[in-house]
């Protein structure tokens, strides 16, 4: 029968070993990014001073840190490279946000600094993680490697989820009108500025704005065109011209559509440039 004293000693010993393990920078990374470690190996190259017994970080494994913010290291909020830019899934908004090379570099730098601060001790020299291994010159190679490791085809965002309308509060299935939560599996960069509310009506839009200015067939056309605008794709390959007298509600109609679709999702066709091939394209 073990005495309480021996049990306490054993517990303390296990905790000490665990703490000591966390003081190792290699273990610090491999425990947090196990799948990246399994694919790309140890994150750091370290050396041991035979005299002082101090281990020093010497070099980064570029492949490890190029993949650390991809789907292996951050499966719930991955970063990909497509169409010449990095895109990171935003768990708060549910869409992919474009980020600069510098922004990704800053995230890797912050990760290296965090490790250095948490494992710093008498038996390990992590100064390189704070300085020469985390500067822009050194990390530029990691960013270049990340563009290859995290690359997706240019079609990554092309109509990947045509069966859904991305609303402000989730993904609306067009077929059964079911609202589903956002997920990184939906490859979307934009969403509507309004929530989907089952059964909601729009009496002011139909009755006041359109009803006072248009005939029934025109109201039907405006409503159907507005519905197509929510899809983010001009399926009919047509444009809608709003014509009428001053103060007739044309601008109000357009502003209402912008409010639903979202200003960030609106583009402009410059009529004075219609003769140019790229403007038409």
UniProtKB/TrEMBL annotation:
Residues 66-215 form the Bacteriophage/plasmid primase P4 C-terminal domain. This is Bacteriophage/plasmid primase P4 C-terminal domain-containing protein. It comes from marine metagenome. The lineage of its organism: unclassified sequences, metagenomes, ecological metagenomes.
